[in-house]
# Entry
Amino acid sequence: MSTSHQKNDNEAEQINSPPGDEAPALLAEETKQEPQFLRNLCILPPRQKNSPVTKQRLAKDAILLPPISPSEPISAIRGAIAEIRGLAHITNYRLVLEDLDEDFLNLILSEHKKKSNKGDRGTETADAAAADVSSSSLVVNENRNGTQHKKNKQNNKKKKNMKSVVPIMSDVVSPYTCDQSSVEIPSVVMSEECEDIVLNEYELLSTLVDSGDLHSNMGFRMVLERYNEGTLRDHVQRTKVILDGNIPYVLGLVGANETEQDAVKETPSKEPEEQAQVTVEGTKEESEEKVAEEERQAEIDPNELKIPLFPMSEPVHVDGKNLQDFFYLACGEEERLALVTGKEYAVQSLEAVEKDEKQNKSNNNNNNNDKKSKAATSHELAKHLVNLGKKCRVDCTISFGGFNPPPAHRKMLGDLAYLEVMLPGGEGVVYITAMPTGFYINQSIYSQDGKMVFDPSPASEPCFSHELLDCLLLKSPSLRSTWAEALSASLERTELTTKEDDPLNAIFVAATHIDLGGENVGECRRALDSVTLRPSWLVPYPRDGKMPLHRHNYSTSRSEVTMADTFGLDIRNGSSRDWNEELQSAREMPKDTIEQRIERARMIHKTLGDFGDAAAAGVVAIFKGQIGPMNPNENVRSHVYLHNNIFFSRAVDSGADTFKLGQGDAFARKSALRDASCVGALHKLDIPGMHTLATVLVDYLGVRMVCQSIVPGILLGEKTHQILYGAVESSSPLAWDKDMHEKLDKNLGKSMMIASRKVLRTPLNDDRIEKVSSPENKSDGEEITKDDVIDYFGSVEMKAIRGSDHRSYCLDLTRLTPRDANWVPHTEGGTGNWERNLGKNTNKIPSDLQDDEWVMSILRPELVMRFTSMKLQEKTASSKSKANSDEDNSSEKQVEDAVSNDDAQDVLDSLRMNLNVFLPHLKTLEHVDNAEFEKIKKDEELAREVAAVLWDKILPEVTKAVKDAPGQVPVDGKSLTEFLHDRGVNCRYLGRLASLASEQERNDVQEEKDLIAGKISSIPRRSMPFCWLELLECEMVARAAKHVLDKYLTENGGASAAQVSKTVASFLSALMSMSEESAADTERRLEKNNSNSDDKSQLSLFESRVTNAVVRGRNEIWTEIENEVGRRFRYTLRLYNKKDQASMSRAPLIPLLRRVCQRSGIRLFAKEYNIGSKGLCDANISYPISASDIVEVLPMLRHAANDGRESFAPFSNGADAANSSLHILLNEAKQAYDAATVLLNEKNFNLALEYIQEATTLYQRITDSPLHSRVSKCLDLTTLILYQAKEYEMSANHASKALAVSMQISGFDSADVVGAHMVLSHVALQSGHLATSIKHHRSVLYLTELLAGPHHTELSALYHKLSGIYSDVGSVFVALRFLQTAMTRKNSDRVFQAVLNRQVAQIYARLGQLRLAVEKEKETFHIFRMTLGNDHEFTKSSKEMLQEYMVAAQAQGKLLAEQEEKQMAEANANAIADEIIADEIAEEKRKKKKKNKSKAKKKK
# Structure
């Protein structure tokens, strides 16, 4: 339950003016008196007939509620009960009001205080429970060692009607659900004469308060109800869920000191604390208190003052090609990775670093880990939590038996179902009869001959209970013992997780579940997917083969759930949801006050989110063959489906009878995408009376499905709807309605810069009409002459239909901007830019632009707005110039008046675009309406001008901006797409940008050659970053590869393909290899590494019965990809699939693999792949990626109502990834965010903080979750505000939350996550958390190289910053190694390269290596001189420093020479002395030997 926030609509104000010095008032508090809260309410255990439990025990088992507002829904109380231990397994009950006498209430409060004083809020051991039980009852005493049964002598005889156990209340079995429980008729069929006041869960508590039935000091009594088949099925499913690890852990709803408090307290909700509303601490008083508290405590955690060391045997750089350790490196958990792999991870405290620095020695081998590190502690805790999770799963299989459903005569006796339960501990199977009043053990058994004997009558010990779980617990000692352990483990797990204050740790633990004791790969994958909305393209893989991939848990429950799947359709509610009516009704909700606007936006967001989930489920059902088509007699390509009131159709060219201007499947796919984009644009405009359908696109295995809500009446015949505008069939004339035309022109014309132009009523030409002409297609309506002309708005394909609900719907919004003239053949009026720039070596590029797919190549709205703004600026400048020339003596104000008096609206009207220019199959107005024909010619010229601005100005500007400011280069394809779209550039211009980048690279190389040859004396500071061309080509190849792979999958059957993984693995192997592997190479590889055994074990045992998929070789695959790149982007690859070493070294393969998997929904195991080697593309075994490496291929979903930045997102369970980017229709939230940004720039931090808090609150009230892209942006801005306000600790806290939210929304390796890691690293460094800063900084290094390749321009700067961190703390040896690594990275800024050289020289000088310092400073001076000139301050400073180093080096050289000469003299003297001593020793040995010989002779 959560306390509702009632707001005064009359006092709510909008942020329509620039922010001042007052706080926002959108959510102003009510001026009237605060509502009274209900206190001392409690939940009473289920009602008993003759309760054997004492009154004191009842008081102890009552659940005290916190103070509750009357505005709370009654359903919230039921939601709280579902989480309470001892009550969570009860599903079929009602709540009734019950007055509490004063003594009993005081007893309840007293018992609550006793439990609170124990410090565990009601926790008590099972053996401490006590109750007065009837002497004739069977008593079950619970203890830690198990359960002992004691029976009275009277119950020793076997009786069929024997009463079952009445246990005491404990943590194991409930005493309130057995024989003495009162099971009554359900409230839905209950007589009106019932004396109880029953709570309606669909009402608010205020209803009971207003009627005088509810007040403080009352109880909500649970009354058990009889089951029917539906509630029985729900109860069994709930029991399965609880036993599957969802053990209830809530022991009470009120804390130790909450009973007497007057403040409003919220009851625990189902959602974890991480998903609570994000608030920002930040008052001045709190900040001062926090600073004082920090001064009283230890300054900083000692673990934060320990920095990781990098021994000389280990590299300091992060390997961006390491996919096996992806989740560790992406989270910066290198220390935990060392714990898992058994490697040493050395850290050193700052004090030890300073000590070593004073002694001038390396600290690489110092490891003063006296205490267990924080990472080690967290790792052990995570392993313990995983083990606790295993203990929380009870091995008890429940399924509906083979005798189910009951025969007719048994149904009449009350039997509802028969269950089979496999008990743990080897106790075998028990058979249970379910009846309306509960469950009991029956006498069905397996006979000796192996046959099942049906006997549903009660067993000698029936163990009757209203709840299935209690029935089983009474029956099985092993289950009781296991259940007690599970309860204990659940409580311990809860206590440990609530103490964890790091929001990132839970995400990381779920991702590395496989290394912490996970049971199988599937479980680990589900653990990963449970913490992220967007499924990761990499899935955890067992290390060293310790976990077989084919291991899979046996679960009949999972099987039953799958078979009973309704694919998004709620059959229990009686009818399908009317999505269109819900959406349109939500849009028509009142919006006069802020509260009304919030509720309206919330309903729209919820409806669209639910629609996305339902559409995703429906598409999956269609692909599985679970839903039949509406038109099975037609061609499969024309099949359409209706499920859950959603209309599904394939985006294919189903024939020429539909009104369209292009042909082919590619055109149809592109048309569907454009339609969804335009629907999204109208959704954002939120124009009253302009209705659009809820629209979702889904791509899966080469098929694109269009999912839409249904126009009311459109499926019931022509009489139930009316076409107001446009035409549905090609042979039909365009319908026209004056009101609709004016509405479109008024609402869309100005906002989208769309012109209204005259067209023929039959716009298609004779050739197109002839293809579809048939007697049945002839119109029966009004007679239309050949030259009838109408004033038409928008694209000719657009149509407006009035449904049976009398609303007007806009359909087929394929264009809101005109066609791109650059992609129109020059002979048909295009600019001819592509034809003129065809160039050489273009055999893979089509010679012309004749392609129906390019009919849908339209200009971006950002480009149109930019062009309009540019023209207005030119007009303003021209007006000012004219005013100044005409009125030389006029004042400045007169000039401004002259400018302002200019009719800007005429300029805007002249810039409106005609959407029907350059379209094929349209009739011309020439000789029909010559004036209008000339106007269309001007429209075509305007469209060509916009396209020319894009080609001649914007594309070169983008290239120049990348070169001049390399810091803004995107890190992956998604951020690259957003980067281009923001500038009005479509992704089809990737080829043109790559050509410009390649040309600039050639110019840079030529400049360097000219400098070496002495032709020029200076060179520009910056060169074109290598990563720009690499990123462009990677994105082009990834996009082309998706289309080629879709083609292969379609050929092999698409969703019906027998073995999709073989096709995908073979395709990826071709992409990730440099050449084809020969048979000899394959044999040598298999002999060297017997890794194919696992691959073969994953293949089907019935391989011979499966038709092998058509698999191409590597060369054929790359040829098709190159042809697709040439067709789509009119570009010839320069880096990929080349034989020369220079190109091969620059082709980023890992980023390409990631991007292809993301765009196609492919999921791989995170393991080592031999990327960049020779490859094998075989029908059975491929290399380096095999079929067993493919986890799954997910459907890709795009929501039309998203924020415009999100394209297709993969989904596994629902459309959460797409829903996280739905556009929110609340201007106040955006205004608050923008106001906070303005105030931040003005350094008004306090007010900026209040505005961003308000924006965050508004967004979360609408989405009911912080997992939304707009909330993530609010957290980012909050972090920045707090940082600039120098609240570093609070800023670091919010940066951590922002990173956690970004990871949950977009995965572990998105561009947003890279930025969040970088912000957290910077803030943590400023707040003194050194270890955290370094950890996240290295995450940025790994992710940047993984996403963009090793040549990204930011890598050098990142290593340089790490060097600065180590240098600041005195670890100069590690700092030097990071600097050396930074110098190996390709850098496009020559001055920055010189700065790196200078810092290396300074460290060399600091270490006494003056000669090396001189060499590096010479390089620095040379770079400064050739880039900045001799007169620049940097050049002069470098020259002075070089002279100082040279003087010092000469002095050091002389000293070293003298020392060397002295050492040589000493060495020579020592050598002579050693020689003399050696001669003396030899002489003495000789004499001794001679003497011994003489003695020997004498003896003889």
User: Anything to note?
Assistant: The CA atoms of residues 140 and 355 lie 67 Å apart.
